[in-house]
């Protein structure tokens, strides 16, 4: 399995598109900058949403209204992160695809996206869902307290990839 991944990374790295990226100086820094700008947009929106879910910010506003403002930024930012991340992988496939921290990061991204959906879906049926009973407010707090450290761990993992050896 590892040998197969090895061969795949080598082939990808030798492809014309990867070679073109590798030989054009401005591509990687530009794509990294866009990746970081999207991280900033997603993380600030996640922070606002989760602080409201916990109940320490914008308590005069409903969760639905805060979610309507910030969740679209998350769903627009993730495809940008996916596209820019894919270009970074294409430039140096083994650096990410054979790196355990990258695998961890992708697992955490799926978990974090799932928790964002768990907050969003109930609001589609009932706008007051998270502002209702105290058990729902407790659940909202639990989702936020899980979600925030996971998003922060994703940022740590993103930066950490450069410092952990690929297999
Ligand atoms: C959705 C799919 C994503 C993919 C495929 C992806 C892929 C990548 C790749 C390949 C790198 C370069 C790592 C290196 O070679 O050193 C990177 C860096 C990074 N990523 Fe992502 N990423 C994604 C989502 C995210 C998300 C959601 C966040 C945080 C909210 C994030 C935060 C970062 C950070 C902070 C870096 C380090 C940037 C730097 O130091 O230049 N990424 N990502």
Write structural notes for this entry.
- The chain has seven helices and no strands.
- The protein is mainly α and 167 residues long.
- The protein has one domain.
- Helix 3 runs antiparallel to helix 4 (63-91) and helix 6 (100-125) packs antiparallel against helix 7.
- The radius of gyration is 19 Å and the shape is elongated.
- Bound molecules: protoporphyrin IX containing FE.
What's the short story on this structure?
The protein is built from seven helices and no strands. The chain has helices at residues 2-14, 16-22, 27-54, 63-91, 93-97, 100-125, 134-160.
User: Shape from CA axes?
Assistant: elongated
Largest sheet: none
The residue ranges in which pLDDT falls below 50 over 5 or more consecutive positions are none
End-to-end gap? 12 Å
The tally of domains stands at 1
Q: Could you spell the SSE succession in H and E letters? A: HHHHHHH
Rounded radius of gyration (Å): 19 Å
Attribute tags:
167 residues, 81% helix, elongated, binds protoporphyrin IX containing FE
Topology:
Blueprint: H1 2-14, H2 16-22, H3 27-54, H4 63-91, H5 93-97, H6 100-125, H7 134-160
Helix pairs in contact: 3-4, 3-7, 6-7
The structure holds protoporphyrin IX containing FE (HEM).
